[in-house]
Specification:
Layout: E1 3-7, E2 10-15, H1 17-39, H2 48-54, H3 66-71, H4 80-112, E3 114-115, E4 121-125, H5 127-148, H6 154-159, H7 166-189
Antiparallel strand pairs: 1-2, 2-4, 3-4
Length: 191
């Protein structure tokens, strides 16, 4: 298993080859979901004057995909019209920010990482980079948790599963992502 440790003003990350592959795969899929869904929402031509006066003209409807509903929730639960207007004005920027954080993970894993003996990679992040990773890891964990139906009794469920079962792998992946997120928090806070 990899490690995340604080060293002076840097956060050192070491990941095994399988962890790098898993993180790259999940990140690629979530970026595609964020971009694919938003690309199909609006086909109206953009009028720069209209955008300047009234703001962006995104879709005011909540996404249909449960993962996107979790990552891009309504701002106003009791007011559909206000929630739609808020979504129309902010969702494009929120999707772009989430995609940017996820892209940071991809860049660090593919360009900044140095190969370590025995496979895998190691690299260092400054506090801003580690915070960006933490935000993206939160999105990945929420997405995976939504897809696999995370519940409070997952540990009990896993105990009754065969280690070769797909459900066991889903839960183990969620647990690993939780560990990575927690390790990043501890490195950032100096715990």
């Amino acid at each position: 298993m990899g490690s995340v440790r604080r060293r002076a003003d840097r956060v050192r990350v070491q990941l095994e080859e399988a962890e790098v592959w898993l993180l790259m795969s999940m990140t690629t899929q979530l970026i595609a979901l964020l971009r694919e869904d938003s690309a199909t929402e609006s086909t109206d031509p953009v009028d720069p004057l209209h955008t300047l006066v009234f703001g962006p003209t995104g879709d005011a409807r909540p996404p249909e995909d449960p993962v996107l509903r979790r990552l891009l929730p309504d701002a106003y639960a009791d007011d559909a019209e206000a929630a739609g207007e808020f979504r129309r004005l902010t969702e494009g920027d929120l999707r772009a920010a989430k995609s940017s954080g996820l892209s940071r993970i991809m860049t660090d894993l593919s360009e900044r990482g140095q190969a370590k003996r025995g496979g895998g990679i190691k690299f260092e992040l400054d506090d801003d980079g580690a915070a960006e990773w933490l935000s993206a890891l939160t999105d990945l964990r929420l997405a995976l948790g939504t897809r696999i139906g995370v519940s409070e009794d997952m540990a009990e469920e896993r105990a009754g599963l065969d280690v070769d079962s797909p459900r066991y792998a889903e839960i183990a992946t969620y647990d690993w992502l939780s560990w990575l997120q927690d390790a990043m928090v501890r490195a950032l806070t100096g715990e």
